[in-house]
Automatic annotation (TrEMBL):
Sites where the protein binds Zn(2+) 2: 178, 212, 322
Organism of origin: Bacteroides fragilis
InterPro entries: Peptidase_M42 (IPR008007), Peptidase_M42_aminopept (IPR051464), Peptidase_M42_dom2 (IPR023367)
Family: Belongs to the peptidase M42 family.
GO molecular function: aminopeptidase activity; metal ion binding
One Pfam family hit: Peptidase_M42
The protein's name in its UniProt record: M42 family peptidase
Gene Ontology biological process terms from the UniProt entry: proteolysis
Keyword presence, Protease: yes
KW Hydrolase (keyword) present: yes
Lineage: Bacteria, Pseudomonadati, Bacteroidota, Bacteroidia, Bacteroidales
Positions contributing to Zn(2+) 1 binding: 66, 178, 234
Cofactor mode of binding and number, as noted: Binds 2 divalent metal cations per subunit.
Length: 353
């Protein structure tokens, strides 16, 4: 399993709306394996395998995963040089005190800092038991007030410091696995398809932007490509942890395979077809029927684009989502690569009914 590209993706910050560097990395990596690449006005990055043929009714597959990650933006700087932030995406505020962060300034500089809070010794017992409000936290850069105000501006983007580690041979933890793991999967499927000459189908891999702030990039790429079938890959909630009732959220575990969603953001016929493919190819998979209200993916908006797009929503089980220590299993990632590859090369007229 080639993991260098995944490691590179995780080492680049790509907070929603500020994905340019990560998008460039995706394009640079994928160029040798595709016929063309492109970037649209939103910042979505496209990689196309054309497979020219005379059949105007041939399938066009869109493989989509968002490349943005949750983070923050600077909203205020006080007279002492402490930096205050707002959320950019659905950050779990309760887990961020003590985090190491990087402020990417409008001047092109990266400034390191830590998220501080009042020590528990100095707050009342009642206050200790309350949920943390983000506006009560601050970033301490270690710089003087004058230095801070000369370097940092309102609106500068703030990301958790890259922190990827392996907890075992197969378990990887990092901020931003949601959803750079999906972008990595697309890259490996396309790389594999580039060596396979048997499919007449067009395939477009998209690293989409701004999913964490409202599926904004996916709306545009759906209109741009108007595929017959869109496969959306994202992380999914692993429920193999304490205090997560399976009777409420389903039974999804790390290491047991890619997740096939059977919910309204999927074209239900396709879920049965891809389940058959997984069985035929001995690919490990799990089934989820969670409601999209628990956490929707870009499949929701792709499905409703133009006159409608058939969608397949696949998930990679992930623990501790929307924290700086998300956790995934490499076996599940491999299963997703295998399944998407075989969906494409084994597709036939059944997909279009």
């Amino acid at each position: 399993m080639e993991l260098d590209f995944l490691n590179s993706l995780l080492s680049i910050n790509s907070v929603s709306g500020f994905e340019n560097q990560a998008g460039k990395l995706f394009i640079d990596y994928i160029v040798p394996y595709v016929d063309s690449t492109d970037t649209d006005i939103m910042g979505n990055c496209y990689a196309n395998i054309v497979n020219e043929c005379n059949d105007k009714k041939k399938l066009k597959f869109l493989l989509e995963a968002h490349i943005d990650e949750i983070g923050f933006q600077v909203i205020y700087i006080d007279d002492n040089g402490y930096v205050y932030i707002r959320r950019n995406g659905g950050v779990d505020v309760q887990c961020i005190p003590g985090s190491q962060v990087i402020i990417q300034t409008s001047l092109g500089e990266e400034i390191h800092g830590i998220i501080g809070k009042t020590p528990i010794h100095l707050i009342s017992p009642e206050e200790r038991n309350k949920n943390i409000d983000l506006h009560t936290l601050w970033i301490d850069t270690g710089l003087s007030s004058d230095e801070v105000k000369s370097k940092i501006s309102i609106g500068d983007v703030v990301a958790w410091k890259p922190n990827m580690i392996y907890l075992s041979d197969k378990r990887i933890s990092s901020k931003g696995l949601d959803n750079k793991v999906g972008v990595y999967i697309i890259s490996q499927v396309i790389k594999r398809l580039s060596k396979y000459k048997g499919t007449p189908y067009q395939v477009c891999g998209v690293a989409s932007v701004q999913e964490e702030v409202g599926h904004r990039g996916a709306i545009i790429c759906g209109y741009n490509m108007n595929p017959n079938i869109a496969i959306s890959i994202d992380v999914d909630f692993a429920t193999d942890v304490p205090n997560c009732p399976k009777s409420k959220f389903g039974d999804i575990s790390l290491g047991k395979g890619v997740v096939i969603h059977k919910s309204i953001d999927n074209t239900i016929l396709l879920t049965f077809l891809i389940e058959d493919i997984a069985k035929e190819e001995n690919i490990k998979y799990q089934i989820s029927a969670r409601p999209i209200s628990v956490g929707g993916t870009n499949a929701i908006v792709l499905q409703q684009t133009q006159s409608g797009i058939k969608t397949i929503s696949l998930g990679i089980p992930c623990r501790y989502m929307h924290t700086p220590v998300e956790l995934c299993d490499l076996d599940d990632i491999n299963a997703a690569i295998d399944l998407i590859y075989h969906i494409i090369i084994k597709s036939d007229g059944r997909m279009m009914r």
